[in-house]
Amino acid sequence: MTALVFEAQGLSKQYPSGCALDKLSMRIEAGDVYGFVGENGAGKTTLMKMIGGLVHPTGGKMALFGEQGKTELIAARRRIGFLIERPSLYPQMSAQENLGFYSRIFGIRDKSRTAEVLQIVGLSEAGPKRTGEYSLGMRQRLGIAIALLNRPDFLVLDEPVNGLDPAGIVEIRRILEQLAHEQGVTILISSHILSELQLLAGKYGFIHQGRLVKEIDAAELLQSARTMICITTSDPATAADMLKRELEREDITINRKGQIEIPRDTVNLEQLMSALVQLGIPVDGFNLAAPNLEHYYMDLIGGGGR
């Protein structure tokens, strides 16, 4: 039986302005990379702060590594690394000095750990540089380095790639993949970039208005939706109507990008191409769209079709 790293049973958080968490229940097992998906204000950050002891629940129960008592939770949090919102850095200090400061706060006496975490996040050469001169991506990587100082078994990351350029996003993903696959670190991560989250996570929890509405693993996600043929044309509405009549089918739709979509497993490609030519429909693009985390989420919360 796989050990539980985090378990919530009916967790709630009520503020005067409204409910941030509403009887949320979820489980994260050792070795999971758990993608936490939800819109702004859905309750993601509230739950992460609750794991860190920064926010206290108004209802329900929470366990970390099987521990629930107040004293036991404090001890369990020493096994967790956090990057919630932006890392707090002293801009006039170098990365090494920032890490030294946090090492003293965490009670870490191993002087070699600073060099180790800088190596993990690819900042060894930038260690002496003042962090006020760092790019956003470098600051995020240093924030992860701080979260790794205590050799955590569980890493909690709130939007670690928010605002990064594509190269920075890929670099953060590389670091997290290494931690998960080579060091066995369990990760809870939220991100608005769902296509990137889909490349990293093996399990997903969807939160909406404080409620966990669905949990699903990567294999279930791939089985949950069809691969779609996507056709880009100048007048998709007219073209879709023409194809519906010609092919005698009603499952031809238009997605949010304005492309015509047809389920790949229900159409003969040769017949489709022939119909496009016969109807004189100009094709500007033709591609296959695999099951998509963003589509799944929007369908789940009632955000419309494709």
Automatic annotation (TrEMBL):
It comes from the Bacteria. This is ABC transporter domain-containing protein. SUPFAM superfamilies: P-loop containing nucleoside triphosphate hydrolases. Pfam families: ABC_tran. Belongs to the ABC transporter superfamily. Residues 6-234 form the ABC transporter domain. Keywords: ATP-binding, Nucleotide-binding, Transport. InterPro entries: AAA+_ATPase, ABC_transporter-like_ATP-bd, ABC_transporter-like_CS, P-loop_NTPase. GO terms for molecular function: ATP binding; ATP hydrolysis activity.
